Amino acid sequence: DAKTTQPPSMDCAEGRAANLPCNHSTISGNEYVYWYRQIHSQGPQYIIHGLKNNETNEMASLIITEDRKSSTLILPHATLRDTAVYYCIVRPSAPDLNDYKLSFGAGTTVTVRA
Amino acid sequence: GAVVSQHPSWVICKSGTSVKIECRSLDFQATTMFWYRQFPKQSLMLMATSNEGSKATYEQGVEKDKFLINHASLTLSTLTVTSAHPEDSSFYICSARDQAISEPQHFGDGTRLSIL
Q1: 3-state class of B90 per DSSP?
Q2: Torsion angle in degrees (nearest 10) through CA of A7, A49, A90, A68
Q3: CA-to-CA dists, residue A23 to A60, A87, A89, A94, A109, angstroms
Q4: Three-class SS state of B87
Q5: Across the strands, what pairs with B45?
Q6: For residue range B11-46, what is the model confidence (pLDDT) as tens digits?
């Protein structure tokens, strides 16, 4: 699976948009970009995923560059409850059981400050 | 949305005992569930893939006789830590994927295991 690179930490102001970058320069054509977050002492929470096009849901927006080598997760209005470790994960879309495994890197520790 | 429930949420037991952790998909069926382990200040590490009706697939370095996995139904997988020792103390998390739709995986809230 393609590797991802994320900054280890970032601070965000409450009420402002939080832009979380992720590099995945070795991504293959059939690999999706997933974002999960983990609030302290809880299991990871799914946020969003995409292949080529930008995606938006009630939680966030995902912007994928045209060459697909990087992406940005946008939390439009960060709240204190968005403080968490955010994981950017790349994995294939092929319907093989092994391909559904998720490999977690170190992620980005996001701290939202009042 | 899809809900995955883990039980217990935390457990403390003596060294040498066996501990069973349950992972249930509450509103969907899952032919495949995954078990992860997370040590303090570290990321999640996949231990094994649990397959309904067949043997689990373990990641390299994970002892299958130590971590017994049973996936007897489409909504339940169990992880048993046998003869647990203090070094097995960790945060164990399961995830499951709704077999009816392609994405995504959903995670339980984890089980914090402390072995004295």
Answers
A1: strand
A2: -80
A3: 18, 12, 10, 22, 16
A4: helix
A5: B37
A6: 999 999 999 999 999 988 888 899 999 999 999 999
Longest pairwise C-alpha distance within chain B? 42
Check CB contact under 8 Å for A43 and B105.
no
Query: Which residues of B fall within a CB distance of 8 Å from A101?
Result: 34, 46, 49
Taking an 8 Å cut-off on Cβ atoms, the answer to whether A43 and B112 are in contact is no
Give the mutation candidate from A6, A34, A36, A48 for the B interface (greatest B CB count, under 10 A). A36
- pLDDT at B2 (0 to 100): 73
Phi then psi dihedrals of residue B57, to 5 deg: -105, 120
Is the CB of residue A98 less than 8 Å from the CB of residue A34?
Answer: no
Interatomic CA distance for residues A46 and A87, integer angstroms: 10
